[in-house]
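Example 3.2
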Amino acid sequence: MLTKEKTIGEFVAEDFRAAQVFRKYKIDFCCKGDRTVEEACENKKYQAEDIYNELSNVGNLKSGEIDFNSWPLDLLADYVEKTHHRYVEENSTVLIQYLNKLCKVHGDRHPELFEITSIFTEISGELAAHMKKEELILFPFIKKMVNAKQKGENIETPKFGTVESPVAMMKHEHTVVGDLFVKIDDLTNNYQFPEDACGTYQVTYKMLEDFEKDLHTHIHLENNILFPKAIELEKTFQN
């Protein structure tokens, strides 16, 4: 249902095809998904009504998207870990190797490659630490809550007090990484490789673009679906 009070993240959580609309207008639906469309348009050149018109027609876009919003939270946490965490782990090392190679071969003509490499190396390190905290602390607690609810049991108050505490930290770290990728977008001119780019150059830019797209979906699933529902689930327990 189209309402102007609904946040960007809620639009995408209800129908992931809405992400195509927000990508078109370069509106962040993952790290900044808690804004309304009007708030996202305040400093932009486009009109909110144009976006609402397109959102009202997302049902006509190509379907086939998974309805993650209907998944149990323990299944969604497992999916994020097995799909998106694994993607980051498998592609980070390869990308850093390719970027270092590009710096050696093309760095003299394209000095921006050194900054891109530095930023992506920082992103890789941030995500590695971030994912471990989710896998060792936050996700196990979410699964514990789901299990307790199924069994009609209560849960003990965790050492971090409430699930809102680690969620706030994870969302902040998402924003940090998202902002770093904005810098890469600018430095690569939205992944438009130069005319003298070799095959490795082109593949690397494509991998960077794919990495960012996967990260957007990854963060969306957490910020807009998993985390809010985990907070609501915790409230159903009486401690």
